């Protein structure tokens, strides 16, 4: 089944403890992206990647890192999480660039709580 | 900076009615606009994508229009059904760098 998977789905952690949220897609998609969704603020793009070893900042990249060493994986790294990073995180992938009209496929989301 | 606004924030209508969801954006220099659906606790599903050169797109009971010069898009849902209950988000792609800006969504509830 074609899908985008995220792990973990739920995570409660403490301030400053490094964590990684994994994202994997099995559709050989070139484009992958991370978003966070917050009440009252909507969905905001954190980072995106147009291919292996190519990553760019979205709207709210501060406090996050990403890497794209393999086509299928796009992990989101929080080196020193803070409570303002408590949010619902979504990973998405697309066959090609969004500017080319490609459709995004979203993962199920990861709910992160930083205390 | 681009701002995307969706009005209303929430809407309840009886089953069977036709309805319109609105999306407006402040910078008309968009590459495309996309409408998504989000069910509670789940990710987004793409519904319709309109390129900046297009005026509308249709899929089944859904029709999305785009007026780039006035910074507006509408999503028309015909003959609404309880299964249409969800949050609908619009998003604009600003330039060829693939940065995407979302509205905050309209939460739609179809009353049986």
Give a topology summary.
The complex is a heterodimer of chains A (115) and B (112).
Chain A: E1 4-7, E2 10-13, E3 19-25, E4 31-38, E5 42-51, E6 54-57, E7 65-66, E8 76-78, E9 87-94, E10 105-106, E11 110-114
Parallel strand pairs in A: 2-11
Antiparallel strand pairs in A: 1-3, 3-8, 4-5, 4-9, 5-6, 7-8, 9-10, 9-11
Chain B: E1 4-7, E2 10-14, E3 19-25, E4 32-38, E5 44-51, E6 56-59, E7 62-67, E8 72-77, E9 86-93, E10 100-102, E11 106-111
Parallel strand pairs in B: 2-11
Antiparallel strand pairs in B: 1-3, 3-8, 4-5, 4-9, 6-7, 7-8, 9-10, 9-11
Structure characterization notes:
The complex is a heterodimer of chains A (115) and B (112). Chain A contains no helices and 11 strands. Chain A is mainly β and 115 residues long. In chain A, strand 5 (42-51) and strand 6 form a beta hairpin. Chain A is globular, with a radius of gyration of 13 Å. By secondary structure, chain B is mostly beta strands. Chain B has strands spanning 4-7, 10-14, 19-25, 32-38, 44-51, 56-59, 62-67, 72-77, 86-93, 100-102, 106-111. In chain B, strands 2, 4, 5, 9, 10 and 11 form a 6-stranded mixed β-sheet that branches. The radius of gyration of chain B is 13 Å and the shape is globular. The model of chain B has no long low-confidence stretch (mean pLDDT 93). The interface between A and B is medium-sized, with 28 and 24 residues.
């Amino acid at each position: 089944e074609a899908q985008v998977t995220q792990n973990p789905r739920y995570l409660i952690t403490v301030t400053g403890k490094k964590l990684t949220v994994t994202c994997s897609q099995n559709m050989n998609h070139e484009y992958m992206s991370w978003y966070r969704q917050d009440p009252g603020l909507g969905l905001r793009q954190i980072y995106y990647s147009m291919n292996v070893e190519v990553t760019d900042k979205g709207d709210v990249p501060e406090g996050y890192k990403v890497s794209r060493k393999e086509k299928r994986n796009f992990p989101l790294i929080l080196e020193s999480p803070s409570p303002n990073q408590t949010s619902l995180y979504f990973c998405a992938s697309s066959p090609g660039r969004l500017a080319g009209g490609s459709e995004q496929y979203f993962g199920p989301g990861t709910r992160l709580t930083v205390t | 900076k681009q701002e995307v606004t969706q009005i209303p924030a929430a809407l309840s209508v009886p089953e069977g009615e036709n309805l319109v969801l609105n999306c407006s954006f402040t910078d008309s220099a968009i590459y495309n606009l996309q409408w998504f659906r989000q069910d509670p606790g789940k990710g987004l599903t793409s519904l319709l994508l309109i390129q900046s050169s297009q005026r509308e797109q249709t899929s089944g009971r859904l029709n999305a229009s785009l007026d780039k010069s006035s910074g507006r898009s509408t999503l028309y849902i015909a003959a609404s059904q309880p299964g249409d209950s969800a949050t609908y988000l619009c998003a604009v792609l600003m330039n060829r760098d693939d940065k995407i800006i979302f509205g905050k969504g309209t939460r739609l509830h179809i009353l049986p």
